[in-house]
Design goal:
This protein has 237 residues and is α/β, with parallel strands linked by helices. The protein has a single domain, classed as Rossmann fold (3-Layer(aba) Sandwich), CATH 3.40.50.150. It is built from 7 helices and 11 strands. Strand 2 and strand 3 form a beta hairpin. The longest helix is centred in the middle third of the chain and has 13 residues.
């Protein structure tokens, strides 16, 4: 349920009035669909409001620790507040920092990101929004390469991206010893082209599993598959 300052989920509330990028379907899909089996350490790159980190906390056991990284000051502060007010505050650590300059000693079993879309710096309504929407001096491949540095053995990196950006990243990934192991094609509606993909990478050389999710049926109702994926989060499911 959307409110003026945020979004109410079944088990938590996300304030996003200070964040350039609001709660949206992309973040919810990634938070609901990233594979968390046997995961002990999670890293969320560009956490924004902290939505994905908190969703993953809800989906994982009490011994799973989640680290969330955000560069923009207001979003970072709001992510801290959202994490603290959730029932998983003791398992979520929010840090302020740039993905390309950050250093971690530990390794992560799962690294997730709903990264900036644009590889060229584009004019935006505010500096904060520009920072959230534009990769500026880096790009998705740089983020993937950086994430690999922090990846545990048998770990995976999962991102939600526009289709074109995802396809490009899949082609680039072997250059750094990564392989796309899972590729979700996200369709807003039957008959439309897929605008988003959720792609997972690991060091394992395995065939890429192809999957499809359709959000709305022909009658503009949520599909059963989408409801099943998000029923633990949306109030109206």
């Amino acid at each position: 349920m959307t409110m003026s300052n945020g979004f109410q989920f079944k088990q938590f509330f996300i304030q996003h009035d200070k964040c350039a990028m609001k709660v949206n379907t992309d973040g919810i899909l990634l938070g609901a669909m990233a594979q968390v089996k046997n995961v002990q350490q999670i890293l969320d790159l560009g956490t924004g409001s902290g939505l994905i980190a908190i969703m993953l906390a809800q989906r994982t056991s009490g011994n799973c620790q989640i680290t969330a990284l955000e560069v923009e000051k207001s979003a970072y502060q709001q992510a801290v507040e959202n994490a603290k007010s959730s029932e998983w505050a003791n398992r979520i650590t929010v840090l302020q920092g740039d993905v390309m300059q950050q250093q971690f000693e530990q390794k992560f079993d799962l690294i997730v990101s709903n990264p900036p879309y644009f590889e060229d710096s584009l004019a935006a309504r505010s500096e904060a929004r520009d920072l959230a929407r534009s990769v500026n001096t880096s790009n998705h491949f740089d983020w993937l390469q950086q994430a690999k540095n922090w990846l545990a053995e048998n770990g995976r990196i999962t991102m939600i991206l526009p289709t074109e950006a995802a396809e490009k990243l899949i082609l680039q990934s072997p250059e750094i010893g990564l392989c796309c192991t899972e590729q979700w094609h996200i369709y807003t509606k039957v008959g439309k082209t897929a605008k988003r993909q959720i792609v997972s990478f690991s060091e394992k050389k395995t065939a890429c599993e192809q999957k499809v999710l359709i959000i709305y049926d022909l009658n503009n109702h949520y599909t059963a598959e989408f409801k099943q994926l998000t029923q633990d989060f949306y109030l109206n499911f």
